[in-house]
Design a protein that fits this description.
Length: 217
């Protein structure tokens, strides 16, 4: 059976689907999306902004094509056209970010240094925070106050919607959240006004976590 592209009939979806495939390959080649892990999403432009495209679950992230994207309701993560392609359970975390921030693109990867710091700093039973100060790279995160921030670290609950609920509670109730969060023993989620900005912020986060992981004082 030939898969019908889940992105059909939505203006702007072809270009966004191609961007998702391109960025997935980039992160896969860096070793930030090993195997089928990780997921990227982007809101469609204009009147279709209530829809997001997200990388399909269970697909090799180095080998995605524009047809391997699933159209979902951005605020709920529910598929628009349930079919052969499935959105990851982690879509609920993307939806939590879309509901509570101005994000138009969300990237979730298992980049190594973010994961190291998520392991080292987590309280596995409750939300904790990782304070970041001083690094010049903080300027790359688009913070209101550039000299410091506190990155939330969520427990890696087996039932992913529970993580998503805690993410929504935290982001919806806090004034000055950085555009990223960690999940204990798992990875990082970063967002921005488009995929390029989210990628830039992810690179800054990963570089800061590398400095912390290798032990700068
Ligand atoms: Zn993950």
């Amino acid at each position: 059976m030939t898969a019908v592209p889940a992105t059909r009939h939505r203006p702007g979806s072809d270009a966004q689907a191609a961007e998702l495939a391109r960025f997935s390959r980039l992160f896969y080649e860096r070793g930030w999306m090993p195997g089928t892990s990780g997921n990227l999403s982007v809101r469609l432009p204009g009147e279709a902004a209530d829809t997001a495209l997200i990388t399909a679950s269970g697909r090799d992230k180095g080998d995605l094509t524009p047809r391997d994207m699933v159209a979902v309701h951005a605020d709920t993560g529910e598929a628009l056209h349930p079919g052969a392609l499935r959105a990851s359970a982690e879509t609920s975390i993307h939806a939590a970010v879309y509901r509570t921030t101005q994000a138009r693109a969300v990237i979730h990867v298992h980049s190594p240094y973010a994961t190291v710091m998520a392991c080292r700093t987590a309280d596995r039973e409750r939300l904790s925070t990782l304070e970041l100060t001083r690094f010049e790279l903080l300027k790359g995160l688009g913070l209101d106050a550039q000299e410091r921030t506190a990155v939330p670290v969520f427990p890696n609950w087996p039932h992913v919607p529970r993580i998503a609920d805690e993410v929504a509670d935290h982001l919806g109730g806090a004034d000055r959240c950085p555009p990223g969060l960690l999940i204990a023993d798992h990875g990082i989620t970063v967002w921005g006004s488009d995929l390029a900005q989210a990628r830039n912020r992810l690179e800054c986060f990963e570089a800061i976590f590398q400095l912390l992981a290798i032990g700068v004082d």
